[in-house]
């Protein structure tokens, strides 16, 4: 609810990346019964992109949101 992701580049890779991120966020919410912070989503995005470094997603990703301090 507090994060927005913008993906530009190869359309299929962008869809897959956002689907992977949304799935991980939902799994976190059900397992921990709380909302993932924007810093955690940023770390998750970096981990997913690094995990695909040998067959990379051809996307440019921008993540924005509000952190715990309201910034």
Strand order of the largest sheet: 1-2
Shape: globular
Most strands sheet: 2 strands, antiparallel
- Per DSSP, what share of the residues sits in E-state strands of 2 or more residues? 15-25%
Q: Structural class of the secondary structure composition? A: alpha+beta
Short description:
By secondary structure, the chain is α+β, with helices and mostly antiparallel strands. It has two helices and two strands, in the order βααβ.
Write the layout of secondary structure elements.
Blueprint: E1 3-9, H1 11-32, H2 38-51, E2 59-65
Antiparallel strand pairs: 1-2
Tags for this model:
2 strands, 20% strand, 71 residues, alpha+beta, two-stranded antiparallel sheet
Characterize the structure shown.
With 71 residues, the chain is an alpha+beta fold. The chain is 51% helix and 20% strand. It has 2 helices and 2 strands; from the N terminus they run βααβ. The mean pLDDT is 93.
